[in-house]
Design goal:
Order of helices and strands: HHHHHHHHHHHHHHHH
Number of helices: 16
Number of strands: 0
Radius of gyration: 85 Å
Structural class: mainly alpha
Distance between the termini: 77 Å
Number of domains: 2
Largest sheet: none
Shape: rod-shaped
Length: 740
């Protein structure tokens, strides 16, 4: 969540946040360094103040040591020694004590270790008894050990303060210097104790065991503490110590020390008095005091140097920290501005670009950093926007041109559709002379030509159908007349056959009386010959009629074949017209209906023509059979005529062949019966052919009526008597063509 909020901040705010974090980090580390330096400086300063007390304590210890030694000599000599030196020593002690008290009073014990306060209070308590102890010394109310114990305890309390001051120090170098200084003070303290013990021994003229042991212990303690000093002190101070604390004075003290130590065995002090011992060892201690002064001064100088160096380091760290903060601030500000300003420029450029403004200079494209990459990318976007604007202008121009072209195409299409629609409307109304004569666009020219070609083919087809229908109507009339004539002739033939049958029957009857009627036979034969001759003529006429009927039937078959072919072509043209009408869409629906009707009529005409063709085929077969019978009848009649002609010649033979003749006549009667039956069948078929022909005539009339609904030629003649099968040229439209 915090990361998202941080990412939502502006770059300047994020840089500011980063700068603040960096600055706070630098400030923290600088503060830490300054704090540590300040702490070190303050600790050094505090340690310096503590170290500054040590010389005062050392001076006070030194004076108390001198006072302790003189007091011991004064008590042990019963006032004979140091009676004049002791008061002046006490004055020196008081002066140093006043200075030391003043230094101790300056300490703020609340900020120091508790043990240091306890040591100070302990020393103050011991020092408060100093005047009383002095009175006791003057009145000899205190023994040397008691007096020495007091001074030693007081000195130890002061040295304990020095020790606590060293413990309170927080600087190792100062602590080391203070420890070495304290070790030197303790060694010098034991030298003072040695002086006191020697003054006592030399004062009483002997070294008792206790004094001797203390003397030995004090000498050893000096060696230990001075050894600690040489281990911790600066080599220069060690050299100073070795160089200063040497020479005749030190040798004299060593000689007196050896005499005192040897006196335990020899009992001889070699005349060394307490004053001599005290004077000699005091000179040695004074040499130590001189070294102590140098050591304390070196320590104070070192503390002051460290403190000054620490303060200088603090000031330097402050200056460096301030300089780093200042330089870092300026650097961060410069870096921030070197980022935020170019980013702001790029952002402003982006805003201008997103606002649609493109005519401006993108800043920072010459930079080598990421902002330069962004600026150059923005420059690319700007150029892309310029190119896009140019492309949009070009696209708008192209769109405008395309719109104009689409409008022009639409106008051309609308114009062409209106032409086709008008022509289809006229076709729907039956005007097959409806052509598209106006100029249309090149892409619609083929549609125009196809429409005109389709109209031409439809006109030709319907013209052919009309002509065929008229021919069918005309031929069907002739066929009907021929059929009726054949029917009449067949009826006449039937009547003749009946008469022939009656005559044959009569012949048969008369054959019985042939002999009796021989006279009348010639007349009857003559009559029969005439009738036979007429029958032959009738048969010949019937044969001729049969031939005509056969020829008419053959011709009707041909006509029906033409009608069937016309119906097939009409059906095909109507199918093509339906396809073209379907391509034309809604505008061709009317024409599609007409084409469907024409197709249905063509199919019906084909079916009827097939039926007529079948009937005519059957009639032709029957006619052929009838013609064959008629021919046979003609042959028979011719034979009868010949035979009747010979009747006269054969009258004499009539009687002989009467019975055979009777049988022949019976056979003739049977043949005539068969001929009569065939004739009756021919009459029936003739009547059926007549009925079919009449129906064909009616259908032809209906077809002619349907075709007459269409305007086929340019004069508006709907009879369809004449069709130009070549059709009009598509490019040369008739006057009735649709114009715009």
């Amino acid at each position: 969540m915090l990361i998202k909020r941080f990412n939502d901040l502006s770059i300047s705010m994020r840089l500011l946040a980063g700068t603040m974090v960096t600055a706070l980090g630098l400030l923290f580390f600088a503060s830490e360094v300054v704090y540590l330096d300040a702490k070190s400086a303050l600790e050094l300063q505090s340690s310096g103040r503590l170290a500054a007390l040590m010389p005062s304590i050392g001076s006070l210890v030194h004076e108390l040591q001198k006072e302790r030694g003189r007091s011991a000599g004064f008590i042990s000599s019963g006032g004979g020694a140091f009676s004049s030196e002791l008061p002046s020593q006490r004055t020196d002690t008081d002066n140093v004590l006043a200075q030391a008290k003043a230094e101790l009073d300056k300490l703020d014990l609340s900020d120091l270790p508790e043990t240091l306060g306890m040591a100070v209070n302990h020393a103050r308590n011991d020092l408060s008894q100093l005047d009383a102890k002095r009175v006791a010394v003057d009145s000899f109310d205190i023994t040397v050990p008691q007096m020495a114990q007091y001074y030693t305890t007081t000195i130890e309390a002061l040295l304990e303060i020095a020790h606590e001051l060293e413990v309170a120090s927080h600087n190792d170098r100062i602590s080391k210097a203070m420890i070495s200084y304290l070790s030197f003070l303790r060694g010098k303290e034991y030298a003072g104790r040695e002086r006191a013990m020697g003054a006592v021994g030399f004062g009483v003229g002997r070294f008792e065991t206790e004094i001797y042991d203390n003397l030995i212990r004090f000498i050893q303690a000096q060696k230990i503490y001075f050894s600690d000093f040489t281990d911790l002190a600066d080599p220069a101070l060690i050299g100073l110590f070795n160089e200063t604390v040497s020479g005749p004075v030190v040798d004299e003290v060593q000689r007196m020390r050896d005499t005192a130590l040897a006196s335990v065995r020899t009992g001889d002090l070699r005349g060394i008095t307490s004053a001599q011992w005290f004077t000699a060892i005091t000179e040695k201690i004074n040499l130590m005091r001189d070294v102590e002064g140098v050591i304390s001064k070196a320590m104070i100088d070192d503390v002051n140097s460290l403190t000054s160096a620490s303060w200088r380091s603090l000031v330097l760290d402050l200056v460096i920290s301030a300089a780093v903060m200042l330089i870092g601030g300026f650097l961060l500000r410069y870096v921030s501005q070197s980022i935020t300003r170019p980013v702001a420029d790029v952002t402003h450029s982006m805003e201008r670009l997103s606002g649609g403004e493109i005519d401006f200079e993108v800043q920072g494209t010459d930079r080598k950093d990421e902002i330069g990459v962004m600026a150059r990318a923005l420059k690319v976007f700007q150029q892309a926007a310029v190119d896009k604007l140019q492309l949009e202008k070009e696209a708008e121009e192209e769109r405008r041109k395309a719109e104009q072209e689409r409008k022009q195409i639409f106008d051309q299409l609308e114009y062409a559709v209106s032409q086709v629609s008008g022509a289809l409307g006229r076709l729907a109304e039956g005007d097959l002379t409806a052509y598209i004569g106006a100029d249309v666009a090149a892409e619609y020219e083929k549609t125009k030509q196809d429409f005109n070609a389709a109209a031409t083919q439809l006109q030709e087809a319907l013209g052919t159908v009309s002509q065929a229908a008229n021919e069918i109507r005309s031929n069907s009339g002739g066929i009907a007349e021929a059929s009726e004539e054949m029917s009449r002739r067949t009826e006449s033939q039937a009547a003749s056959l009946e008469e022939t049958a009656a005559a044959v029957a009569q012949i048969k009857e008369t054959m019985k009386s042939t002999v009796e009627a021989a006279t009348k036979a010639s007349e009857m034969v003559a009559t029969a010959k005439g009738k036979a001759q007429r029958g032959s003529d009738v048969v010949n006429s019937a044969v001729s009629s049969m031939r005509d009927i056969e020829e008419s039937a053959s011709r009707m078959n041909e006509i029906i074949g033409v009608i069937d072919e016309i119906a097939f072509q009409t059906n095909l043209l109507a199918l093509n017209a339906g396809v073209e009408a379907a391509r034309a869409g809604d505008a061709g629906k009317g024409f599609a209906v007409v084409a469907s009707e024409v197709r249905a009529l063509a199919q019906r005409s084909a079916e009827e023509s097939n039926q007529i063709k079948a009937l005519i085929s059957e009639s032709a077969t029957s006619v052929e059979q009838g013609a064959e019978l008629v021919r046979q009848t003609g042959v028979a009649l011719e034979a009868i005529v010949v035979e009747v002609g010979e009747v006269d010649k054969m009258v004499g033979e009539i009687f002989a062949g009467a019975k055979e003749q009777d049988l022949s006549i019976e056979e003739i009667n049977m043949a005539i019966g068969q001929l009569d039956q065939a004739t009756q069948q021919n009459a029936a078929m003739a009547e059926e052919a007549t009925a079919a022909t009449r129906m064909l005539s009616q259908e032809s009339d209906h077809l002619v009526e349907l075709v007459s609904r269409f305007v086929i030629d340019g004069d508006g003649d709907n009879r369809g008597d004449h069709v130009d099968h070549d059709g009009p040229d598509v490019d040369e439209m008739p006057a009735q063509a649709v114009n715009m």
